[in-house]
Amino acid sequence: MKFEDLLLEIGGFGRFQILILFILCLPRINLPMHFLLHNFLAATPSHHCAIPHQEAFVNLTMEEVLIISIPREPDGTFRSCEMFSQPQFHLLLNSSLQPENNSIIQHCQHGWVYDHSQFTSTISTQWDLVCEQRGLNQATATFFFIGVTMGAVVFGYLSDRFGRKAMLLLSLVCSLVFGMLSAASVSYSMLAITRTLTGVALSGVSLIVLPLGMEWVDIQHRTFSGILTSIFWSIGNMLLAMVAYLVREWHWLLVAVTGPCLLSIVCLWWVPESARWLIANGKVKQAHRHVLRCARMNGRKDFTVSPEALRRMATDKKPGGSYSYISLFRTPVLRKISLCSGAVWFGVAFSYYGMSMNLTGFGLNMYLSQFVFGVIEIPAKMIMYVLVNRVGRRQSQAWALILTGLCIGANVIIPKPFTSLRSVVAIMGKGFSEAAFTTVFLYTSELYPTILRQNGMGYTSFVARLGGALAPLVFLLDEVWRSLPELTYCGVAVCCGSVAFLLPETLNVRLPEGIEDIE
């Protein structure tokens, strides 16, 4: 007897499974609030060089002081990173006559003055991460995703070795501790280190939540539970816009998005360990207790099963802990799955975070952009729920990612004055991008066997986080050519989407238990 057959007897989608899924959705809401926090944490308000006070300025207004001290851009706005070495009093007569001589222009010498109308403070204004230091500002997102990348490897292995629930609890506790330490940062170095460690911890949450829920659900409801869990990511997206709108000071914003981890830790008490994992690792007594509890909660009170019957379900004599990431590449079919799914994950994450971290290039204000990007994800998920069950996982995955790339590419061609059209294309692109992300989580968890599922999810998540870490740095390419970042996102998404056609279809196929089920 396979575990799928046992689920049919004890109820594969009853009160027991619904309770587990809803509790696991709490940490899921919290994830985007950290993963996309960079948009608000490191936002750079408009700024100009600080001008030291001089006796000659006594009778001048602030606007006049700026006119004689700071050169203008061709569009008439003041430059952010440069000032005149000496006040240019003649500009008071005609400010449109900008000096031709660049030798009188220098970089800011006395720091910067920031517009605080939108943000009380951000890490940019706290540590002057602008102009020459702009790269350090973008790097905070990269440090976080490097942490998430490392965490994917660590927690993928540990959750296959020591169990899903114990590692989820550990990652939530660490997320709470490091998140609060980030909020208390007194230097850029401290923030960079604590954000990296927060990324490591949150990676465990991201990685374990979906398989822990899925391993209790039957084949028929697997897609539904995957989509339901991912809808809570979109709710977290919308909540981030609201929290960031209400909390404009970066220390308190970090406290506000980290606090909910405490609620998740408390609620985890009611979530059982995965019975599939317990059986695969020979912990039959615990599995037996959870299976009977599941049957009782789902109203199957007359159900009985012996621990010996569960013991016979263990597909391999080899204990689950003796498998490693190398096992993903030892056999030919599994090797092909691992290489192709890695490429797809990279493309999905790279394009998703590329779009999500470009809120200001969207035509709306950043809070509204963040909220709209969250809202559009929900219909995208609903449509995917129908498509993955009708068209199949492979076609849905490939086309969602290819269309994401084409939408990003289209906005390079559409002229800037067509803001409405650009906004519509961007929203469509974000919808396709989220559809691709929703599908890849579900698809990957179905491609790998139980004994290697967390290792598989850990490896693909590692590759995805590499994509997430590189995505914010690509924005720095706009100094080479304005459209180069968008073209990079477009090219990667289309190429990686095409690779998805090489993966096997998993629609209505049993979850594989051992490596021989795949081969």
From TrEMBL:
Which protein are we looking at? Solute carrier family 22 member 7
Q: State the UniProt keywords alphabetically.
A: Cell membrane, Ion transport, Membrane, Transmembrane, Transmembrane helix, Transport
Q: Which GO terms describe its biological process?
A: monoatomic ion transport
Family of the protein in this entry:
Belongs to the major facilitator (TC 2.A.1) superfamily. Organic cation transporter (TC 2.A.1.19) family.
Q: Which reaction does it catalyse?
A: 3',5'-cyclic GMP(in) = 3',5'-cyclic GMP(out); urate(out) = urate(in); estrone 3-sulfate(out) = estrone 3-sulfate(in); creatinine(in) = creatinine(out)
One of the entry's Gene Ontology molecular-function terms is: prostaglandin transmembrane transporter activity
The UniProt entry, under InterPro entries, shows:
MFS_dom, MFS_sugar_transport-like, MFS_trans_sf
Q: Which segments cross the bilayer?
A: 139-159, 166-186, 192-212, 224-246, 252-271, 337-355, 367-387, 399-418
Q: Which GO terms describe its cellular component?
A: apical plasma membrane; basolateral plasma membrane
Q: How does it sit in the membrane?
A: Multi-pass membrane protein
* UniProt cross-references to Pfam families, sorted A to Z: Sugar_tr
Encoding gene (name): Slc22a7
Provenance organism: Ciconia maguari
Q: Where is the Major facilitator superfamily (MFS) profile domain?
A: 87-508
- Compartmental location: Apical cell membrane; Basolateral cell membrane
